[in-house]
TrEMBL record:
Keywords: Endosome, Glycoprotein, Leucine-rich repeat, Membrane, Receptor, Repeat, Signal, Transmembrane, Transmembrane helix. It holds the Pfam family LRR_8. Its main location: other. This is Toll-like receptor 8. It comes from Nothobranchius furzeri. One of its GO terms (cellular component) is endosome. GO terms for molecular function: pattern recognition receptor activity. It comes from the Eukaryota. It is found in: Endosome; Membrane.
Length: 278
């Protein structure tokens, strides 16, 4: 049976799952009617403007785990500019676990969710997300992980931590969820958060932010609507204080409902530990 020919005949297909089929390229006969496309766990390492040409009805694209420690490809994923040019209705894009070295150029302005988890991205540039005015969920965790006690193969980030341009999130005014966990961050630039007035969930676990959340934390002054913040596992290796007091700037989180402190590592909780939240 001709796989490509059969695909072309599926003219009423709305959802298509081609997961774990060992594909090395995108079939060029995908039905133009498809709205949800899953291509995870294949061996596709190159995408260009022809890869999704004509798929103008696509709203969800799951393209994860095509190149990672569980399915090694021994090279970087290469996504050329304008790969997603025809996907003007795309809302959800998952590119996690693909060994990307940079944020792909020309991402659709229609996106509401973007997942770039656990690639090899070392730097977030000023214009990487500048056109994503409708984005509500951004996941860029695990691109520069802490490798001590890692449950899976882990390569330390060459630069020590993920580098994020001061204005990288400037146009993400609709953002509600931002995941920066596992990027070996040692500080948080207040400018990242100045225009994120709708942010509700901020995930910062598994970084090196112990001082950033117990000392001066001016970034918290820009997050009046945050309801959940996760600062777990931000301990300093070989430094286990008896007591900890959260930064006085936590008092600015007037909408906070959930706070994660797991693995922050200190010996005792007293009346002052959470006093800024009173």
């Amino acid at each position: 049976m001709d796989f490509n020919a059969n695909l072309k005949n599926l003219t009423k297909m709305r959802e298509l799952k081609l997961i774990g089929m060992r594909l090395v390229e995108i079939p060029d006969t995908l039905p133009v009617s498809v709205e949800i496309l899953e291509l995870g766990n294949n061996n596709i390492t190159f995408l260009n403007s022809k890869s999704f040409a004509g798929l103008t009805n696509l709203t969800q694209l799951w393209f994860s785990r095509n190149c990672y420690y569980g399915q090694p490809c021994k090279k970087r994923m290469n996504i050329l500019e304008n790969t997603f040019a025809d996907l003007t209705k795309l809302q959800d894009l998952d590119l996690s676990f693909n060994n990307l070295s940079f944020v792909p150029k020309g991402l659709p302005q229609s996106l509401s969710t973007l997942n770039l988890t656990s690639n090899g991205i070392q730097c977030i540039l000023k214009d990487d997300f500048s056109a994503l005015y409708n984005l509500k969920i951004l996941k860029i965790q695990g691109n520069c992980p802490r490798c001590e006690n890692s449950p899976h193969p882990c390569l330390p980030c060459p630069n020590g931590s993920l580098e994020i341009n001061t204005d990288a999130f400037e146009n993400l005014t609709q953002l509600e969820v931002l995941n920066l966990a596992g990027n070996s961050l040692v500080s948080l630039n207040p400018s990242w958060f100045k225009r994120l007035k709708k942010l509700k969930s901020l995930l910062l676990s598994e970084n090196h932010l112990f001082k950033a959340v117990t000392g001066e934390a001016t970034f918290l002054r820009h997050l009046p609507n945050v309801e959940m913040i996760d600062i777990s596992f931000n301990y300093n290796p070989k430094n286990y204080p008896v007591k900890v007091k959260l930064s006085k700037d936590f008092s600015n989180l007037v909408s906070l409902r959930t706070l994660h402190l797991e693995g922050l590592v200190f010996q005792s909780l007293d009346v002052n530990t959470l006093s800024p939240l009173h």
